[in-house]
Amino acid sequence: MLKHFLTITIFAFIACNTFAQPLERSKVENQYKWNLAEIYPTTDAWKADMDMMNSQVEKLADFKGKLGESAKSLYEALKLGNDLTKTLYKAWTYASNLSNEDLNIAKNQAMIQQMSALGTKFSETSAFMEPEILQIPKEKIDQFFKEEPGLKEFDMYINNIIRMRAHTLSAAEEKILASFNLIAGNQDDVYGIFNNAEKPAPKVTLSDGKEVELTPASYTRYRTLPNREDREKVMSTFFNSYGIFKNTLGANLAGKVKKDWVFAKDRKYSSSLEASLDRDNIPVSVYSTLIEQVNKNLPTLYRFLDLKKRMLGVDSLHYYDLYVPLVAKVDMSFTIEQGQKTLLNALKPLGKEYVATLQKAFNDRWIDYMPTVGKRSGAYSTGAAYDVHPYILMNWTDDYESVSTLAHELGHTMHSYFSNKNQPFSKSDYATFVAEIASTVNETLLNDYMVKNAKTDEEKLYLLGSYLDLLRTTIFRQTSFAEFELDIHKKVEEGKPITGDDMCKIYSDIVDKYYGNEDGHCVVDPYIQYEWAYIPHFLGYTYYVFQYSTSLIYATAFAEKIVNEGQPAVDKYYNILKGGGSKYAVDLIKDAGLDPLSPEPTELAMQKMNKVMDQMEEILNKIDK
Ligand SMILES: [Zn+2]
Asked: What spacing in Å lies between the alpha carbon of 61 and ligand 1's midpoint?
């Protein structure tokens, strides 16, 4: 948590879907609104904490130049920083939740501004700490730990800084490197302006005579059109419109990849991948294991493609057919109470303590359900009010999506709740690499429960079908992106030139392999080679998308273990929920019973995917008879 001294403004909200509806907040019954009075009874109480922090922050500056003096001095500085961060997070949770209730209230927005100002002051005042700790010799740090047992609370924080020692340069070199940050985001800016504004949006005329414009946003809608010629036209026109600019976009992306490599190399990493993963201390082999295992399990994707072909009733499946939903949407309706009851039943496999905590979240008003005038759209969970409890904001619309959104956010909430309860504040925050496991385990168990209790075959097929689509797009598609990202970085790191044409070749080789083009599982038409140019993540992030795949693989595998093995698997799973940031992410996952470096997680996820396909085929065979 201390490492977040600098990131107070981009605070950990996990945002999801978007919808909104007008209803006056004052008309909503209390039981559907969160209770922020548990954080502060009044805004005056919040104000008092703000005043206290504003004066306390200055005391941090007194430790400047003294961290290496003694164990006591180091401990007291860290303790003060820790306590201030904890209060800062609590005050932030109050102000941001309050302002999200209605974004039009100016006095709440003013609270956010005061928070940001305090956050900046805090970052500036505490900026000396990490570089100073870095300067303390290893032997001295070891000695400090012996002298001051209280330092144990901050061992993860200190060890993380020490871990970076091998990749930290002299002060003068660091200064030069930092100056390049001014231009480091250039390729992403160029792409953003081009893709969202200046790129001409092609038009197509659909079978109903309507002419539509294809922007990145409208494309995702039109690629799902039920008429086959329409979606073929949409996809070919859209990707060809990127093909026109392939060399410009290729040069731009190559520039970004070169930038990654320059920074990694200057920091003495052997690859951009190693540099990226080192932030969370994730071994490079986690990445190679993912790619290797997903490749080994491509036959499961081929089976999915063949099933899709059968369900669509086409002779040969094309890439443009992939986004048509397998089964037409079945509308299911849920009141908030019905949704709560469904979740209490669906999440029973996670044990009594889990269900009791869910009940507590419902009873004690941790959740703000209703869409109201001016309320922030979408959904998030925040566990940053460490001494209180997590809070969820969502916009309930009486449909199944509302129930699964709540299941997802409750996963984050349970993870935060158990971490906060079992770890000191300094070790309660968990890494991105494990952040989506609990949320996805919940969604998986909800889907299982809904399938088991479906009233009709159509409902069952819809639930199974949308779940399969999720596995296809998240496990396979995101890993194919991860493979592309690795290949283009490798080229640059080997000192080889790379152009837009090279990227097209690399991309189409990967897609051909994943979708079984040669064996007729899915025809990958030539214009698919330009798809990479449409994916903004390659410019905005470095080695990030693979975590979408790993999260879903681990979560699916945990859900399988929980369903197959029962209580012993649940007990182990709690090591993630309760572990917070007390260990590195990979170790927490190992403690919970899965080794990310072994084939097991992917095998279990594929076992699940095949079971879902078995269930679907069984229903289809029955209908066909
Ligand atoms: Zn999430």
From this structure: 37
Active site residues: 409
Integer Cα distance of 517 and 512 in angstroms = 5
Cα 337 versus chain centre, distance:
28
Distance 611 CA to ligand 1 centre (A): 25
Distance CA 130, CA 448 (A): 47
Which of 360, 387, 393 has its CA nearest to residue 374? 393
Query: Helix 437-452 vs helix 400-422: angle between axes, to the nearest 10 degrees?
Result: 140
Mean pLDDT calculated for residue range 462-485: 95
| CB distance 278 to 166 below 8 Å | no
Mean pLDDT taken over the chain: 93
C-alpha distances out from residue 262 to 168, 267, 280, 544, Å: 14, 9, 20, 18
Who surrounds ion ligand 1 at CB < 5 A?
14, 439
Strands across the sheet with 391-393, in order? 367-368, 391-393, 380-382
Q: What residues does 159 pair with on adjacent strands? A: none
Is the entire prediction scored with pTM above 0.90? yes
Distance CA 145, CA 138 (A): 11
Cα 474 to ligand 1 centre (Å): 14
Those residues whose C-beta lies under 8 Å from the C-beta of residue 494, and which sit 6 or more positions away, are none
**pLDDT exceeds cutoff 80 at 500:** yes
The token pair that represents 210 in the structure block: 């309507």
C-alpha 409 to ligand 1 mean position (Å): 6
Check pLDDT > 90 for residue 178.
Answer: no
What is the 389 CA–ligand 1 centroid distance (Å)? 18
